[in-house]
């Protein structure tokens, strides 16, 4: 699904972590761990193509052009959710569904999966942090795509919603999808952990 | 095209939602132009002579007001990451955002422009040309303004910086637009000014998306 070979990131003149290599197979979940500032978010952004690595390779299985893979095969869920406070949950979901080419069936499935029916007509500003997170997570199903990049997906979710998100993630993995997550809490599905080592040498 | 059509709708809805931003631009336009007779005296002959110039200067200033909104909010809340990741190229995203700025803010200002010019004493017969040139100038303001907004993404006091960056790019439409209207009012050839304005507008619409996309990529990385 995804292969990182000696990936090296330099931000603001500082090497973030010792070069990382990892292979993410279909059906597999990998948690990237490491202390604050170790570069977990930057690693996800590099996989998404938003940061250019200093050296190393990022390859997506089945795609010669990584940018096409990024546009068609992955969902990025950042800590910054991109939801507009003045719009209703429904308007925001409908926009992102159209933006990424999801069908009405996908939209219905996403709303059901994260139990968003009661929230649809509320403005985003009226939602609690956890409700807002559910709305952002629902985009992972709009439309279903094989690779999820998740940045601290669990943080504001309550116990019931964590279980529920675990079920959604388990279905995603069973269907051959993969998850690459930066997280401090363990994911509610079986996963492998890769710990980022702080770089020894300066950039 | 479906994603870009969705984006255009969203941008226009966001511009008009939450307090009607374009109305502030219109009110500001009126306010700026009202300062002129207060400062220069209310002599009708004097005002009529500068009506076209004052209208275009006010239009340019009012067009600066909401530039920051084009990219800054999406940049701050992370939506720009997702837009950059999408299937349409970032150049198309930037062009659609500039186009939405023109539709949401440029068009209302263009409608207001003949009113402002006539208030300053311009002849009513000039109104169609004032509207046309203001509409064309507004498109150039949206695209060149988009460059300024993209280049200053993430900068502290980005709004002021944007204004400084875009003012030089705003001068050709003011010169050509006001020039065409003044020429018509004096019975001279006004087509040259209009053609130069159209040429500048088309050039910015063709080139600005690449500059905006490059600046956004730089800001995101």
Question: How would you describe this protein?
Answer:
The complex is a heterodimer of chains A (203) and B (221). Chain A has 203 residues and is α/β, with parallel strands linked by helices. Chain A is built from 6 helices and 10 strands. Chain A has helices at 40-47, 66-73, 89-99, 104-113, 129-138, 159-174; strands at residues 2-8, 10-11, 14-15, 20-24, 29-33, 55-60, 74-77, 147-151, 178-182, 192-195. A 5-stranded parallel beta sheet of chain A has the order 7-8-9-5-10, with helices on both faces. In chain A, strands 4-1-6 form a 3-stranded antiparallel beta sheet, with no helix packed on it. The longest helix of chain A has 16 residues, at 159-174. The radius of gyration of chain A is 17 Å and the shape is globular. The mean pLDDT of chain A is 90. Chain B has 221 residues and is mainly alpha-helical. Chain B contains 9 helices and no strands. Chain B has helices spanning 2-16, 21-40, 44-64, 72-77, 79-85, 90-119, 127-151, 158-185, 191-220. In chain B, helix 3 packs antiparallel against helix 6 and helix 8 (158-185) runs antiparallel to helix 9 (191-220). Chain B starts with a helix and ends with a helix. Chains A and B meet through helix 2 and helix 3 of A and helix 1, helix 4 and helix 5 of B.
Measured distance between first and last alpha carbons of chain A: 30 Å
Q: Give the C-alpha Rg of chain B.
A: 18 Å
Number of strands of chain A: 10
What is the spatial order of strands in the main beta sheet of chain A? 7-8-9-5-10
Largest sheet of chain A: 5 strands, parallel
β-strand percent of chain B reads under 5%
Helix percent of chain A reads: 25-40%
Q: In terms of per-residue confidence, which ranges of chain B show pLDDT below 50 for 5 or more consecutive residues?
A: none
Task: Provide the low-confidence segments of chain A as ranges.
Answer: none
Largest interface: A-B, 28 and 27 residues
Give the class of chain A from helix and strand content and strand pairing. alpha/beta
């Amino acid at each position: 699904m995804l292969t990182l070979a000696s990936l090296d990131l330099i931000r603001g003149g500082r090497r973030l972590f010792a070069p990382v290599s990892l292979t993410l197979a279909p059906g597999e979940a990998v948690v990237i761990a490491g202390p604050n500032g170790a570069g977990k978010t930057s690693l996800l952004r590099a996989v998404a193509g938003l940061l250019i690595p200093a050296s190393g390779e990022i390859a997506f299985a089945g795609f010669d052009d990584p940018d096409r893979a990024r546009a068609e095969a992955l969902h990025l869920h950042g800590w910054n959710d991109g939801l507009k406070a003045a719009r209703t949950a429904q308007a925001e979901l409908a926009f992102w569904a159209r933006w990424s080419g999801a069908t009405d069936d996908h939209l219905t499935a996403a709303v059901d999966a994260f139990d968003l029916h009661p929230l649809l007509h509320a403005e985003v500003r009226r939602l609690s942090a956890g409700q807002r997170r559910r709305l952002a997570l629902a985009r992972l199903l709009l439309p279903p795509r094989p690779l999820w990049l998740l940045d601290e997906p669990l943080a504001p979710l309550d116990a019931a919603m964590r279980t529920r998100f675990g079920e959604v993630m388990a279905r995603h993995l069973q269907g051959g999808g993969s998850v690459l997550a930066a997280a401090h809490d363990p994911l509610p599905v079986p996963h492998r952990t890769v710990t980022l080592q702080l770089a020894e040498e300066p950039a | 095209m479906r994603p870009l059509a969705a984006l255009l709708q969203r941008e226009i809805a966001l511009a008009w939602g939450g307090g009607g931003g374009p109305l502030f631009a219109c009110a500001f336009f009126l306010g700026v132009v009202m300062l002129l007779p207060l400062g220069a005296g209310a002599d009708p002959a004097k005002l009529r002579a500068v009506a076209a110039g004052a209208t275009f200067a006010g239009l340019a200033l009012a067009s600066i007001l909401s530039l920051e909104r084009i990219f800054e909010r999406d940049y701050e809340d992370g939506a720009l990451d997702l837009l950059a990741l999408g299937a349409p190229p970032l150049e198309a995203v930037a062009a659609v955002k500039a186009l939405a700025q023109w539709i949401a803010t440029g068009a209302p200002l263009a409608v207001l422009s003949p009113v402002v010019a006539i208030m300053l004493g311009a002849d009513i017969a000039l109104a169609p040309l004032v509207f046309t040139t203001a509409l064309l100038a507004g498109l150039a303001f949206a695209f060149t303004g988009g460059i300024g907004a993209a280049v200053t993404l993430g900068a502290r006091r980005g709004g002021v910086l944007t204004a400084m960056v875009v003012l030089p790019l705003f001068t050709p439409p003011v010169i050509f637009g006001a020039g065409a209207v003044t020429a018509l009012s004096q019975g001279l050839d006004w087509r040259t000014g209009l053609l130069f304005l159209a040429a500048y507008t088309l050039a910015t619409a063709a080139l600005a998306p690449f500059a905006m996309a490059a600046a956004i990529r730089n800001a995101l990385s």
